[in-house]
């Protein structure tokens, strides 16, 4: 979950640094002195141009997230789960159970985070609801991961639980 947050915000941070460099490079502007000529005492003692700082720049709206670095990781996780799920069921142990818990929570978190970011946009629902929904999603994901790991350590684990469900007969 923290990895998702870092990867999704890395392009914003890089773009923000680019904007800051752009603003710094253009922050000193040569502007003709607008004071009337009779108020200027001497053209030799005072330059004909003065340096002034510009007004605030309007911020360029960035995309909500750049998924170019995250998509390959999401695909790799999905492909790895094709082998991990049967392995956790066929050979249930603490390692496979914990790997399955982490992989499934990350997989669900990324999917639900995409839903929250796409449908709870600040333009549509205001500024508070998207932050609240994303915070609630992080809380649910962390709680789910903690519960699954607790279940794996203190009980029979995910793999054996699935085997027991399949063993139930009418």
TrEMBL record:
A ubiquinone binds at residue 119. The keyword Disulfide bond does not apply. It is found in: Mitochondrion inner membrane. Pfam families: CybS (PF05328). InterPro entries: CybS (IPR007992), SQR/QFR_C/D (IPR034804). It comes from the Eukaryota. GO terms for biological process: mitochondrial electron transport, succinate to ubiquinone; tricarboxylic acid cycle. The chain crosses the membrane at residues 76-95, 132-153. GO terms for cellular component: mitochondrial inner membrane; respiratory chain complex II (succinate dehydrogenase). Keywords: Electron transport, Heme, Iron, Membrane, Metal-binding, Mitochondrion, Mitochondrion inner membrane, Transit peptide, Transmembrane, Transmembrane helix, Transport, Tricarboxylic acid cycle. It is a multi-pass membrane protein. GO terms for molecular function: heme binding; metal ion binding; ubiquinone binding. Heme b binds at residue 107. PANTHER family: SUCCINATE DEHYDROGENASE, SUCCINATE DEHYDROGENASE [UBIQUINONE] CYTOCHROME B SMALL SUBUNIT, MITOCHONDRIAL. Membrane-anchoring subunit of succinate dehydrogenase (SDH) that is involved in complex II of the mitochondrial electron transport chain and is responsible for transferring electrons from succinate to ubiquinone (coenzyme Q). Belongs to the CybS family. This is Succinate dehydrogenase [ubiquinone] cytochrome b small subunit. It comes from Tribolium castaneum (Red flour beetle). The lineage of its organism: Eukaryota, Metazoa, Ecdysozoa, Arthropoda, Hexapoda.
